[in-house]
Amino acid sequence: MALRSADMSTESGSKYTPYCRKQKSLGLLCSNFLSLYNRDGVESIGLDDAATRLGVERRRIYDIVNVLESVGILARKAKNRYTWKGFQAIPKALQDLKNEGLKENCHGADGNCSEKVSDDDEDETYSDTNNLSQNNKSNPNSFRKLSEPKKSGDNRKEKSLGLLTQNFVKLFLCTDMELISLDDAAKLLLGDGKHTSMTTRTKVRRLYDIANVLSSMKFIEKIHHPETRKPAFRWLGLQENGPANESKKRVFGTDLTNSTLKRCKVDGNAELQLQKQVKHQSSENEVDTSRTSAKSFQFGPFAPVNVPKVEASGNGKPKQVIDWESLASTYRPQYHNQALRDLFSHYVEAWKSWCSEVAGKKPIQLMS
DNA sequence: CCATCCCGCCAATAA
DNA sequence: TTATTGGCGGGATGG
Fold first, then answer.
1. A115 confidence band (pLDDT: 50, 70, 90)
2. Distance between alpha carbon A120 and the CA centroid of its chain, in Å?
3. Which of A24, A72, A142, A208 could form a disulfide with A89 if both were Cys (CB 3.0 to 4.6 A apart)?
4. pLDDT score of A197
5. Closest to A6 (Cα-Cα) out of A311, A360, A15
6. What's the pLDDT at A106?
7. pLDDT grade, residue A238 (50/70/90)?
8. What is the model's pTM?
9. Where is the segment annotated Disordered (predicted)?
10. Cα A291 from Cα A104, distance rounded (Å)
C-alpha cells in the first residue's frame, strides 16, 4: 500500500517534483524519528506507527531502529515494538561497546592491533527484560561469544546493520585512529581478505547508511582528510574519560535553531495527491497535549543556516556547526502527516533534552 | 568521472 | 502457512 515515489503524473501542468534525494535520507528520517519519540512519556514505539507518522516505508524504519538500538536509544521489546530508552542510555551503551571492543581486541602482542571484532549479540543493559533461557535444540549455536569463528558460516546476524554499527563505533572507541574512511572501515570490519570486489562495495554502502544516522545525531562528523583529500569520519560523540562523575556541562555547539521553513529546491506542491487518506486521528500513541510551546528556547534570528557546504552565507564567521534541527528544517521534508508540524517545534526541546541528559564532553569547537 | 546511498526485491526468521 | 525483519545490490543522485 502506498507506493510512494516520484510521481509526476496527474497534472501535467504543475511543478513536477524534482525529487530531492536528501529529503529522503536516513539522517533526516533519524532526526524526525528522534524528535517524534523523544517526547515526555514515550515508552513504547510501534513500528507501524513510526512508519506511518514519518511517512516512510517499513523497511526504512528497520534501518533506523537497528542503528538506534545499537547505541542504546532503543531496545527491542517484541514484534513490531521497541522500547524507548532515551539518550540517557547512550553513555552506558557506548561504554559497554568500548569495553567489549577492548576485550575482544588485543589479540596479538603486536602493538598494532587491527581488530576484527565480530559477533556479539545483544548488549546487556542489566536492568532489562531478561529472557528465559528458551533455547531449543534446533538452534545449534546459541552459546558462542568470543573467539571469532573464522569459519563464519554463521547466521546472517553477523552482517546485520546493528552489529555493523556497533563494530563501526568500536573502531572509533577502541582504536587510535581518529579519522576513518568508510572504505577502511569496511576492510577492517570484514576481517580477512576475502572480498576484493563487491563485498567491500556492499559493506561500504551499509556504512554510508550508518554514518548518515550517526551523523544526524552528531556522533560522528564527516570531514575531508587534510592531506589525502579523501572523505573520512571523525568521532565527536561523548567519550568516557570521566573518572567518576561526568560533568554535565555543555555539549556540542550551542544550538541556534532557526526553524525557518525552507525547502530544498523548487517547491514541490504536487504532493497533495497522496493525501487520499487523511486520517489524522492519533493512530496509536495517544497524543497528550503536552507543552508544545517553545518556551525555553527562542529562535535566534538566524539567517540561512545552510547545510552541509557552508558557503558564505551572510555570516561573517566561517565557523558553523550544523545541527539537526536546522538540517531538518532546511530540507523540507515532504512526508505527509501533519504530525511533522509539531516536530519542528519539538526539535528544540529534543535538542535541549539531549544536551542536558547526555553529558557530551568532547569540546568540539564552538562558534563565537 | 566518482562518492553517496535510496529503493525495494526477495530471502531468512519469527509468529 | 503468513507476517515480520532486514540483507543486498542496482542504479539514480549529487558533486
1. very low
2. 20
3. A72
4. 79
5. A15
6. 62
7. low
8. 0.64
9. 113-158
10. 46
Instruction: Give the CA-to-C1' distance from A58 to C9 in angstroms.
Output: 19
Report the 10 Å Cβ neighbour count for A13. Answer: 7
Residue A69, pLDDT above cutoff 90 = yes
Q: Which nucleotides of B are covered by protein (CB under 7 A)?
A: 3-10, 12-15
Scanning every strand, the nucleotide with its C1' closest to A48's CA turns out to be: C4
pLDDT of A257 over the 90 cut: no
Tell me the pLDDT tens digit for each residue of A6-26: 333 344 445 666 788 989 999
Give the range among A84-88, A263-267, A293-297 with minimum mean pLDDT.
A293-297
The span from the CA of A23 to the CA of A63, in Å, is: 16
The integer distance in angstroms from the CA atom of A186 to the C1' atom of C7 is 16
Distance C12 C1' – A11 CA (angstroms): 24
CB within 7 A of nucleic chain B: A 3-5, 21-22, 24-27, 56-57, 59-60, 78-79, 155-157, 182, 201, 204-205, 208-209, 211-212, 222, 231
What H or E segment, with its residue span, contains residue A60? helix A58-70
Residue type, A289: T
Protein-proximal positions, strand C, CB < 7 A: 4-11, 13-15
A44-46 and A81-84 strand pairing: antiparallel
Among A215, A332, A205, A216, residue whose Cα is nearest residue A268: A332
Residues across chain A: 368
| Protein residue nearest nucleotide C15, by CA to C1' | A309
> How far, in Å, is the CA of A21 from the C1' of nucleotide C12?
9
- Transcribe A236-268 into DSSP letters: -S-----SSS------SSPP--------SSS--
